[in-house]
Write a structure and sequence with these properties.
Blueprint lengths: L2 H20 L5 H21 L11 H22 L4 H30 L4 H34 L5
Helix pairs in contact: 1-2, 1-4, 2-3, 3-4, 4-5
């Protein structure tokens, strides 16, 4: 498959993911935008798993694509099969936050790998660790607040 499809879907997911993160949770708009984000991320990851031109085979970005798919599954399954309890919603919110953090980390790491190919392994690792550390701090701080606001303003508690 085409690297252009992968990059286009990933960039669109980055933009749409930022919109989803910033909007009110639990609304019809949130669900629709979230479904589009998930579709774009699924497409980007599926295409990423077919790309081997730069690595000649299975490489670190392929591992990250699999991790991303697993993160999506963990974030979506509670919403599909469990009752909409505060715990299931919290798992969804935090995990989908990590889904977005992973997307940002992958994009930044890919940029680093392209800019400094002679040091790409160290650069990719450092970029990923820094992005995940900062992202986790923000995710664990903001997601519970966002969920509390959503839960408090929700007319039905289900």
């Amino acid at each position: 498959m085409s690297p252009s499809i992968h990059a286009g879907a990933a960039i669109a997911a980055l933009v749409l993911g930022a919109v989803v993160v910033s909007m009110s949770k639990g609304t019809t708009r949130h669900r629709a935008a979230g479904a589009c984000y998930v579709g774009l991320l699924l497409l980007s990851n599926a295409v990423a798993l077919t790309l081997t031109r730069t690595t000649g085979g299975f490489g670190p970005f392929h591992v990250l694509a699999i991790v991303s798919l697993c993160t999506l599954a963990v974030g979506l399954v509670p919403m599909w099969i469990l009752p909409r309890s505060p715990g299931a919603i919290a798992v969804h919110g935090i995990t989908m936050g990590f889904s977005y953090i992973g997307l940002v980390a992958a994009g930044l790491s890919q940029a680093v790998a392209q800019l400094i190919p002679e040091h790409s392994s160290a650069g990719v690792l450092a970029t990923s660790v820094i992005t995940f550390t900062l992202g986790a701090a923000v995710n664990f701080r903001l997601t519970p607040r966002s969920l509390a606001r959503t839960h408090a303003s929700s007319p039905r508690q289900s």
